[in-house]
Design brief:
Elements: H1 4-12, E1 17-19, H2 22-28, E2 42-45, H3 49-62, E3 66-69, E4 86-89, E5 96-100, E6 105-108, H4 114-123, H5 140-145, H6 153-156, E7 163-170, E8 175-178, H7 191-195, E9 203-211, E10 219-226, H8 229-242, E11 245-252, H9 253-261, E12 274-281, H10 285-298, E13 303-306, H11 310-321, H12 323-327, E14 333-338, H13 344-358, E15 363-369, E16 374-380, H14 387-407, H15 432-445
Parallel strand pairs: 2-4, 3-4
Antiparallel strand pairs: 1-2, 5-6, 6-9, 7-8, 7-9, 10-12, 10-13, 11-12, 11-15, 14-16, 15-16
Helix pairs in contact: 1-3, 8-10, 8-13, 13-14
Bound molecules: (2R)-2-hydroxypentanedioic acid and zinc ion.
Residues 75, 132-133, 324, 334, 368, 376, 378 line the site of (2R)-2-hydroxypentanedioic acid.
Cofactor: FAD
GO molecular function, one term: FAD binding
Keywords: FAD, Flavoprotein, Oxidoreductase
């Protein structure tokens, strides 16, 4: 530890695992955005809350910024450490601490993977229903810090809905114990909800109590081929009316081309412009057939398959969940937007028109949680285009998006957060008065500005 600030930290906490190994700095200094060169000062791996508090107090004294670090699967640069920050990894705080069958709560440390939380719930005959493709790598602390959404929001809501209590270390090193698992607690500002979605800028989640729920009855998974954009939301309205939906996800022919080139099985002999994967309670099997027949009669759906085994259901889901990975090698420029559900068709049509007029050479891949009005738009870099030109053209794409979203009263970030990537556009979704209040809140929780500075605000 040649840096005197690190020597001081090592002296204060002789048992703390602290690394300046170049491999660790590289690995823990970045998230899935891959846009910034990682350059943290060091990576700390605290083992308990007391160590987290001591690290934060040391940081407040020395002025070293902290980047809280979970699974770093984020797509907005929220967990990037590119300016000599201390990465505070929660990897070692990854245990289930308690289960209460009466409250139906699971208390966990923040570094536990989402998939392990889901498994712990299943082992106790219940479910933790927030779910998305990064489940194996992302951590619950990061899910809370970003209010993660995913593929079952339509049924269960975002992470926010499942957080019964939170322990948080603020920017002064103070430990807050928020809400303590209460269902009802009308005692003023709910600070728990301020922390959820704050992207590590207010404090570090060091323990979470999560609500669990009963598993749904058996579900069925269906893949539909859809011939035109305006049919998409008609199919959604019909499905939502007739079925008890668990998920309603869409992707385009471009997305399917990438995911099948990456190893997934092509589902239909013919190609179609749009596809929907939907999952719903199996109890409504007859309704599912009625729904399908109606959609076909109306010409909204031209082909479909219903999974007849768990393996087939998994294969259909892979078509949707494998998209991000299948695009990764193109270093896509990602956008994650939302509009009201009813506005989706008008917004998509307008945006498609603008993009094909201005950037006909771009491979633009649309997919996402269309039943929540949440669309992912990935722009892939053409091989023959210089990286700088690509980035500046993509920033222009984002400006087009921002204008179009503004007209349609949407948001520039639906579920991926603001981080570094969308920071220039925060003002397009939040008023000056809101941003002033947000800055005031940040200053109250983190007066030395050491908690993930430069992200979000
Ligand atoms: C998803 O819905 C994730 O699969 C990732 O939010 C989206 O890669 C993306 O743009
Ligand atoms: Zn998503």
């Amino acid at each position: 530890m040649t840096d005197p600030r690190l020597s001081e930290l090592a002296r204060l906490l002789p048992d703390l695992k602290l690394s300046t190994d170049p491999g660790d700095l590289e690995h823990h200094g970045r998230d899935w955005t891959r846009r910034w060169t990682p350059a943290p000062l060091a990576v700390a791996f605290p083992a308990d809350i007391a160590q987290v508090q001591a690290i934060v107090r040391w940081a407040a004294q020395t002025g070293v910024a902290i980047v809280p670090s979970g699974g770093r699967t984020g797509l907005s640069g929220g967990a990037v450490a590119a300016h000599g920050e201390l990465v505070l990894s929660l990897d070692r705080m990854n245990k289930v601490l308690d289960f209460n069958p009466v409250d139906r709560t699971l208390t966990v440390q923040p570094g536990i993977a989402l998939e392990a939380v889901q498994q712990a719930a299943r082992d106790r005959g219940l479910i933790y229903p927030v779910d998305f493709a990064a489940r194996g790598s992302c951590q619950i602390g990061g899910n809370i810090a970003t209010n993660a959404g995913g593929i079952r929001v339509i049924r269960y809501g975002n992470t926010r809905q499942w957080v019964a209590g939170l322990k948080v270390v603020t920017g002064t090193g103070e430990l807050l114990d928020l809400n303590k698992g209460l269902v009802k607690n009308a005692s003023g500002y709910d600070l728990r909800h301020l922390v959820i979605g704050s992207e590590g800028t207010l404090g570090i989640v060091v323990e979470a109590t999560l609500w669990l729920t009963a598993p749904p009855p058996d579900t069925q998974v269906m893949l539909l081929a859809i011939p035109a954009m305006d049919a998409l939301m008609k199919v959604f309205a019909e499905a939502n009316h007739r079925l008890r939906l668990e998920a309603f996800e869409f992707f385009t022919d471009r997305a399917l081309a990438h995911v099948t080139a990456h190893g997934a099985q092509k589902p239909f002999a013919e190609d179609h412009p749009f596809y929907v994967v939907t999952e719903f309670d199996a109890a409504g099997e007859a309704d599912a057939l009625d729904f399908f027949e109606r959609c076909v009669e109306e010409g909204w759906v031209v082909d479909g398959v219903i999974a007849s085994s768990d393996a087939q259901a998994a294969a259909l889901w892979r078509l949707r969940e494998g998209i991000t990975e299948s695009l990764a090698r193109y270093k896509p420029y990602k956008n994650d937007v939302s509009v009201r559900i009813s506005v989706v068709p008008a917004f998509m049509e307008e945006m498609q028109r603008l993009l094909s007029a201005e950037y006909p050479h771009f491979d633009v891949v649309w997919f996402g949680h269309i039943g929540d009005g949440n669309l992912h738009i990935n722009v892939l870099k053409p091989d023959d285009l210089a990286n700088d030109t690509f980035v500046s053209q993509c920033e222009h794409v984002t400006s087009l998006l921002v204008e179009t979203l503004h007209r349609h009263e949407g948001s520039i970030s639906a579920e991926h957060g603001i981080g570094l990537v969308k920071k220039p556009w925060l003002g397009s979704v939040r008023s000056d008065a809101e941003i002033t209040l947000m800055r005031g809140i940040k200053a109250a929780w983190d007066p030395r500005n050491i908690m993930n500075p430069g992200k979000l605000l």
